[in-house]
Amino acid sequence: MKKQNYKLLNCVAALSIIAALANGCSSDNDNTSPTNEPDTSDNAGEFVSVDPTKFVDGALASEPTIVDCTLGDGTETRCYQIVTVGVPADSAVGPFCPQNITSEAADSGIWLDGSGTLYQADGDFIVNLPNIYNDSNWQLYDAATGNVNITDTQEACEAAARPDVDEQYQNHCVECSLAYVDGGVSATYLIPVTPTPADTVGTVRNVGVSLNGVQLAGPAPVDAILSAYTIAAFDDCGGHVNPNDGYHYHAATGCTESSDTQVDGHASLLGYAMDGYGIYGMLDSDGNETEGLDECRGHSDETRGYHYHAASAGENMFIGCFTGKTVAMSTGPGGGPRGAPAK
Amino acid sequence: MNEIMKRKMTRWHLIIICGSLHYWLPQTVSAHASILNNDAWQVCENRTRSNSCEYTDNHENIYRGTCQVMSDKLLCVRNQPIEKADTDSAH
């Protein structure tokens, strides 16, 4: 997007930063906090507000606007209204499931167990499912042809994507096409212009939005998915499609991270959380993780103020909770997104 | 079989051996016997929000953090760097 289109928004953001810094300097609060406690000290009040210019060209359906909004505790404030187009602006969607047990990693996506382990969802993975999950009932392919059982119709997608998976779709690799949701689900996010630290941490349902315009979703219900002898393969960017949300991410694999925003070796910005704080990648330019994160996976530094760091792709999450206040639930889980099929 | 699966199979052999040893040793460490590793959820089943938690993945890497509410369940959210199994400087 053209930077000049956001001049007014940037001015508001700059004033917000100045106000926040001034507030932080006048606070008497101790600036230290235990490692496991949310960083709701005065340092958490320092932040770099949402910068609409950071979004990738083509990620948004319209220029962000600033609108009135109500936070979960009833506070009236101002929010960026961000409308995504429903598909990633800078990367392809899929592939997800391997077609055959001979399929290579390049022809399929990834899968995780939710506890750290990330798998290439290739043909070998499909064959080894009984060993991986220690259950001989796993049989995701036709033994005669090697073809993998994949939900290949909208009806099958919807039946298999339910929490109570239709029995006929057990032992399937669940895959939904963007065509089932009219090419993508456009979503509207309301994100506070000025992040406000909350007294207690907030529960994550929808995490936020990536710079390339994709929903950063909460954890995939891996236990429920696996208990039905299904996998819901992600593509290599950590995303997949469901009938309600369309394409969304469950894991940070590097696809969404901007490459030129951090000059000090800090991890790159990948998106914004629903409370208005930035979410950065897990590793810095030297491949190291940040120490001293609070229980939400956030911390503060002098350059970026308070911000989060995404977990690893195998952990089935981006952040652990919200340190800041989010928009009231009536406008969508955690303040968004409100989705509608893209036109 | 690609290199990833070869490494994985080697790790599975190690896990099986360690699992056998674990059966005979005193239960002084938390169990991670389930090959379906959903310990990130299980470790928080009988805990409350913000309680500390720790689990080990299939590669024997250690994850430490606190239990947080995710999708109406408690999940162990790591807030310390992953302690790699093959790192000599592990704590």
Structural class of chain A: alpha+beta
Across the major sheet of chain A, the strand order is 11-12-9-8-13-14-16-15
Question: Which stretches of chain A are low in confidence, meaning pLDDT under 50 for 5 or more residues running?
Answer: 1-36, 38-44, 331-343
Which two chains share the most extensive interface?
A-B, 47 and 35 residues
- Give the helix tally of chain B: 2
Number of domains of chain A: 1
Number of helices of chain A: 5
Query: Could you say which structural class the secondary elements and strand pairing of chain B correspond to?
Result: alpha+beta
Overall 3D form of chain A: globular
Instruction: Give the strand content of chain A.
Output: 15-25%
Strand count, sense and closure of the main sheet of chain B? 3 strands, antiparallel
Order of helices and strands of chain A: HEEEEHHHEEEEEHEEEEEEEEE
**How many DSSP-defined strands of chain B?**
3
pLDDT < 50 stretches of chain B: 14-36
Write down the overall mean pLDDT of chain A: 84
Oligomeric state: heterodimer
How confident overall, as mean pLDDT of chain B?
69
Structure overview:
The complex is a heterodimer of chains A (343) and B (91). Chain A is an alpha+beta fold and 343 residues long. Chain A contains 5 helices and 18 strands. Chain A has one domain. The N terminus and C terminus of chain A are likely disordered. With 91 residues, chain B is an alpha+beta fold. Chain B has 2 helices and 3 strands; from the N terminus they run ααβββ. Chain B has a 3-stranded antiparallel β-sheet. In chain B, 29% of the residues are buried. Chains A and B meet through helix 5 of A and helix 1, helix 2, strand 2 and strand 3 of B.
Briefly say what this structure is.
The complex is a heterodimer of chains A (343) and B (91). With 343 residues, chain A is an alpha+beta fold.
What's the SSE blueprint?
The complex is a heterodimer of chains A (343) and B (91).
Chain A: H1 7-25, E1 65-70, E2 76-83, E3 110-112, E4 118-120, H2 123-127, H3 129-132, H4 154-160, E5 172-173, E6 185-192, E7 197-202, E8 206-210, E9 215-217, H5 222-227, E10 230-231, E11 239-242, E12 246-249, E13 269-273, E14 278-280, E15 298-301, E16 305-309, E17 322-324, E18 338-341
Parallel strand pairs in A: 5-10, 9-12, 14-16
Antiparallel strand pairs in A: 1-2, 2-6, 3-4, 6-18, 7-17, 8-9, 8-13, 11-12, 13-14, 15-16
Chain B: H1 3-24, H2 39-42, E1 52-56, E2 62-70, E3 73-78
Antiparallel strand pairs in B: 1-2, 2-3
